[in-house]
Structures are given as C-alpha cells and as structure tokens.
Amino acid sequence: MSGYFGSYVVVLALFAIGLLIVAGALLVNRALRPSRPTHEKLLTYECGVDPVGDGWAQSQIRYYVFTYLYVVFAVDAVFLFPWATIFAAPGFGAATLAEMFVFLGFIALGIVYAWRKRVLTWT
Questions:
Q1: Tens-of-pLDDT digits for all 123 residues of the chain?
Q2: For residues 44 and 102, what is the distance between their CA atoms, to the nearest angstrom?
Q3: Does the global pTM surpass 0.85?
Q4: Rounded distance between C-alpha atoms, residue 99 and residue 86, angstroms
Q5: Cys bridge to 6: 1, 25, 28, 102, which one at CB 3.0-4.6 A?
Q6: Which residues pair with 49 in a beta bridge?
Q7: CA 94 to CA 32: how far, in whole Å?
Q8: What share of the chain is helix, strand, coil (3-state, %, to 5)?
Q9: What residues does 46 pair with on adjacent strands?
C-alpha cells in the first residue's frame, strides 16, 4: 500500500491486531479461571481492613491542592527536558528562552497563589 492513506491502513491494522490479542487473552482467562464466589471474596478489600460503615468519607481540600501542585511540577518537568535539548540548537536560543520564562512565570504564579493561601504550610 503506497500513498498517503497507506500508512493509516497499516496503523489501523496493527491496532486491530492488538485489540484482538488483548480480547483473546481476556476471553481465554475468563474461560480457564476457576469461579467460586463466596461472601468473603465479594467483600470490598481496602488495605487489609474490613469495611465498616458506609462509603462516604470527607477529606480536607488541602490534599487536593497538594495533588494539583504535584501535577504542576510534573508538567513543568515534562516541558523542561525537551526545552533543554532544543535550547542549544542554532536559531532557537532567544525565542526558546523567552517562551520558557513565560512558562516558568505561569508556574511561579501557581506557586505564589498556593503560598498566599497557606497551602504549602504543613500543620
């Protein structure tokens, strides 16, 4: 297959083959596994502690903010590595440096916001 759409046909064929392999493995697993459900096996398991009470539990908003800060730093790291590799290429120096300072400015704004809201203090 040549031409523009030939590459897409190959990708779609490989995707279909992958789906068939995964679906086949799951079907074989379902056919061969033993099934002996008991009351103890059907209980919810959480860290070795028996479930007590209902499933509703409140948590502090601070933990969600920690999660968002982690995502901010992870995204920052994901963009810093490719930037560091392209920065040394000819013709990309000043433009890439300016773009990275804009990006780091947005990251700094997020950190300053979290600091002003006293989220970064551990109590």
A1: 567 777 889 899 999 999 999 999 999 999 999 988 888 778 776 666 666 666 677 777 777 777 877 887 787 778 787 777 777 777 777 777 888 888 889 888 888 887 888 877 776
A2: 47
A3: no
A4: 12
A5: 1
A6: 46
A7: 62
A8: 65, 0, 35
A9: 49
